[in-house]
Amino acid sequence: MNLSVFQSPARYVQGPDASAQLGPELAQVGVDGPVLILAGGTAHRELSGVWQDSLAKQGLPVRIEAFGGQCTAEEISRVTAMARDFGAVAVVGAGGGQVLDTSRAVAADLDIAAINCPTIASSDAPCSALSVLYHPDHSFDTYRFYRSNPKLVLVDSRMVARAPVRFLSAGLGDAVATWWEARAVRESDSENQLHGMPTATGTALAHLCYQMLLENAQAALSAVRAQSVTPALERIIEANTLLSGLGFESGGLAAAHSIHNGLTTQHETADSMHGEKVAFGLLAELVLEGRSEQTIREVLSFSMAAGLPVTLAQVGLADPSAAVIAEIAERAVAPGETIHHEPVAVTAGSVADAIRVADEIGRGALTDQRD
Ligand SMILES: [Zn+2]
After folding, report:
1. Which of 77, 104, 304, 331 could be a cystine partner for 262, CB 3.0 to 4.6 Å?
2. How far is the CA of 275 from the centre of ligand 1 (A)?
3. What is the 8-class DSSP label of residue 4?
């Protein structure tokens, strides 16, 4: 019998101005030497002074380096060399997904502590034990998997509140799929993303994530539009970052993420964020699984209210040919894809049909909304 596996970051900290606590929080997880901080543009501009003060008070030498812009093998080598020269005992990634992915890769290469400080809540990557690498031309390169999750994830909710609302919306798209994918994994007795069986804990966290989204998403979007921190925003940051992260890794992934991967074969979808494509992938997953109309309507209205795409046109594919849909579906059912965790038999043909029907449902809902 396969073993059940659950894995998580060692420590998770969240709140307004949490950045000012970076020094004590690093000490709390045992960091006691030079720290290299790799920072995206906004984080570098707004937080460098705060970090310097906080780490100086803790007696931790710090070097802050600007991120090169993309998580590539070249950027990882550049930052790894820098961290080695500095004698860093920890690498902090601060900013969006690609900064964090790069910092985790550097920490793994040097076998030192990985610390993640996301400044947006646009995906569930910050808590995970993997990185997505790209080629310099922005095309997908490979995944890198690590032995452990970050030692510390620290989220400054004031930074999230000040970021463009589209980032939070995309995070809602990535998070809303978490429960339905974990449920498919559970129903089909499949493995989670840690190559173990899901624990009841992992699946329950995915469900809690969904409940928190239904109850707080609208109020959280309003908070970000007003650039303000509220309890609802705090709950959504936790759902998008921590619960969705634990839920997808320990609960498992299924069709929504595979259909996302299928959509990425079309360069027209490049302007849509990860969570936006996942949101459309989820609608197709629910159709593929034959879920009730009530379920599909619930998810559809959530996505529409969150400003997420519900049609192919909204992810950049206005009027795609049958060949384009077939290509997306073929990629989605490639060997090793998580769509094979579905509780129903899946073929390229059934996925293409589900994509077409999800698009039809979404277009109908948009027309109703306009009337
Ligand atoms: Zn995702």
Report:
1. 331
2. 6
3. B
What is the distance between the alpha carbons of residues 255 and 261, in angstroms, rounded to a whole number?
10
pLDDT score of 181: 98
Fold of the CATH domain 11-161: Rossmann fold (3.40.50)
Tokens representing 286 are 């629910």
97-133: pLDDT as tens digits: 999 999 999 999 999 999 999 999 998 889 999 998 9
- Cα of 292 to ligand 1 centre, how many Å? 24
Q: What is the pLDDT of residue 45?
A: 97
pLDDT recorded at residue 2: 86
Third-level CATH fold of 164-370: Dehydroquinate synthase-like, alpha domain (1.20.1090)
User: Which stretches in the chain have pLDDT values below 50?
Assistant: none
Catalytic residue numbers, as ranges: 174, 257, 260, 274
HEC letters along 58-84: CCCCEEEEECCCCCCHHHHHHHHHHHH
Task: Show the tokens assigned to 368.
Answer: 């109703």
